Amino acid sequence: MTFLTIGHRGVMGVEPENTLRSFVRAEHEGMDVIELDLHLSKDGALVVMHDADVDRTTDGKGPISDFTLAELRELDAGEGERIPVFEEVVDAVKAPLQAEIKDTAAARALAEVLAGRDLLDRVDVLSFHDEALAEIRTLLPTARTALVASRYGLDVIDRAHAVDAGMLVLNIRRVTLELVERAHAAGLRVIGWTVNTPDHLKLVRGLRLDGATTDFPEIRRAARFTA
């Protein structure tokens, strides 16, 4: 299987994260897959943001869930960009997507969009929340899903199997060769995050991971020459 380079929130190292500008740049730079994050607005829109509040990435303050979509659209998400909704990203780029559910409540809304727009072959559903992946599996039995983990041990393999996920997306600071080999033996692909330096890239290639999530386009180019 080809080693994948995944654009983290687009290419957040060089563009405002989780904006259409960042996603279009990621596609232009040749990223194999583009990753994004999802929350629900007060009125139920699938808005593309990482944090639960708007403070860090916009000129506003407060929880996303306190804003309607129209109110969120008034905020500056960096360099004049506006907060997009998931459907706009689907239309703006043609690359495969990884949609990470940050708020478990967004699972049902995402499932409706994926089914309604026939996106199951293009979008992988990711989450730290086992229950969100379980709900996606119930709603969309053929969806491709991945369990994301930052603090974990070998038990993460059993967690993935419990929710029928086909992939692990793991913080590279804890990845071991034993875990990767056991995951592969169990039929799971393993992606590492966040891979932002040549040393990070050498590590994940040496551990035989299946891909790397990165903030920078340069990692995509370097990955072609790193065995």
From TrEMBL:
Residue intervals passing through the bilayer: none
Pfam families: GDPD
Domain of life: Bacteria
InterPro entries linked: GP_PDE_dom (IPR030395)
PROSITE patterns, A to Z: GP_PDE
All copies of domain GP-PDE, residue ranges: 3-224
PANTHER family: GLYCEROPHOSPHODIESTER PHOSPHODIESTERASE, CYTOPLASMIC, GLYCEROPHOSPHORYL DIESTER PHOSPHODIESTERASE
Protein name, entry field: Glycerophosphodiester phosphodiesterase
Organism: Streptomyces niphimycinicus
